[in-house]
């Protein structure tokens, strides 16, 4: 595992803990679909939540700012692929983002959960 993969894994563990602390149930991590990978799949009451985790080390701004429109559209397609394969009503699906910013020592300095991200039109 390279440094970037370790950073991503660390951020995903922090994000999973944050989601569970908010009452959500993490049901899968690093799910592969035909369109790409979903970092975390969770349940929030009746909703299926597809979570993108963005982790950055000591950079200006918040990690979530690194998430562009193209990635959001790809994420939505992955979520729809997952729903199709699992027989889930896509109207119960939503996209969330957990932003993890690390301090210079590697500790989580700021963790923020953005719920129900709007998917931009092409």
User: Uncertain spans, ≥5 residues at pLDDT below 50?
Assistant: none
Roughly what fraction of the amino acids lie in strands? Answer: 35-45%
Count of alpha and pi helical runs: 2
Radius of gyration, in angstroms, nearest whole number: 14 Å
Note down, in words, how this protein is organized:
The protein is an alpha+beta fold and 122 residues long. It has one domain (3-103): Trna Endonuclease, Chain: A, domain 1 (3-Layer(aba) Sandwich), CATH 3.40.1350.10. It contains two helices and five strands; from the N terminus they run H-E-E-E-H-E-E. It has helices spanning 3-21, 69-86, and strands at residues 25-33, 36-44, 47-57, 93-102, 108-114. It has a five-stranded mixed sheet with strand order 1-2-3-4-5. A hairpin with a 5-residue loop joins strand 4 and strand 5 (108-114). The longest helix is centred in the first third of the chain and has 19 residues, at 3-21. It is globular, with a radius of gyration of 14 Å. The model has no long low-confidence stretch (mean pLDDT 90).
Write out key terms for the chains shown:
5 strands, alpha+beta, 38% strand, 2 helices, single chain, Trna Endonuclease, Chain: A, domain 1, globular, 5-stranded mixed beta sheet, 122 residues
Short description:
The chain is of the alpha+beta class and 122 residues long. It has a single domain, classed as 3-Layer(aba) Sandwich (Trna Endonuclease, Chain: A, domain 1), CATH 3.40.1350.10.
List the helices and strands and how they pair.
Layout: H1 3-21, E1 25-33, E2 36-44, E3 47-57, H2 69-86, E4 93-102, E5 108-114
Parallel strand pairs: 3-4
Antiparallel strand pairs: 1-2, 2-3, 4-5
